[in-house]
Amino acid sequence: MLKNIIYTSYPTTIHSFLKWRNSNPKYNEIYKKIGCLLYDVSLRDGLQGLNKESQQNYSILKKIQIYNEINDNHLPKSIEYGSVVSPRVFPVFQDTIDIFKYIQQKQQKQQETNQEKEQQYHYVFIPNYVNFCKVLQDKYYENFSFISSASDQFLLKNIKQDFSQNFEDHKKIKTHCDFLFLSSKRKLYFSCVNECPIYGKMDNNDVVDKLLQLHALNFDNICLSDTCGTLEVNDFEFIVDKCHKLGINYGTFSLHLHVKQGRERIIEQIIHSALDRKIVKFDVSILDTGGCSATIDKERLSSNLSYELFYKSLVNYIIKKVD
To answer: Alpha-carbon distance 214 to 170, whole Å?
Structure first.
């Protein structure tokens, strides 16, 4: 731990981070220049890494408890609260619409009692056009997250499409959103940005080429997903720097990092490299699980980026800037 940190441990919640930040005017000054937008994926990616037996332990009451814990301790800018997928594959998500009804009711109560709260965005994950059509007329959904990948093998196993078919899906979805969900935000997970669990190491130039194609569809956020938890700093920098040179603003990107034991320092380096480029959106989770159990073997799954590791990386970045 760096010697000029004034606490014996790193912040683990938004409240402890604010306390640390306010302890030194320079910390506040640097953070205001950075700014970070956290996107909580506990209730979606955190749960889909569980086997079916474990998924049965997550009742709607337990998920509501998790949702409230996320807001009480962390106040992320966005929360992904579920997924519109087959209940046969992921039974844990069959009450997704009920979770959002709870969220809407809670927001309404806050408005009625004049509780001031910074705007928060709620997302539902939808894997393909067929599933999107199921919610076209459903007013319970606001913002959407979707999936693509540079790996045909990953897409075929995950959603039974190759990249070309997936791209056509996104074109049709965009048309619907432009007419029916004008105020909605669209986030795109770009899986296997570094390595595919089926194909292996991805070619960086092919990754860039597919990102350029997808960028033309005007997603609000393209989330670079380190599906296997093996992303290296040099590969990350090559991809985002080349995309930037070819017209994609750095701020378009966010990061979804999976953390394998022993790679915490590399994760911190990637976060610092992202912040240097003003990539400030990060997926985080309060659960120590993550990944797609329908695509990746259980022994290869790794946890999502935790708030603790994110705040540790952020604190070290700010201190480095002060020094």
So the answer is: 8
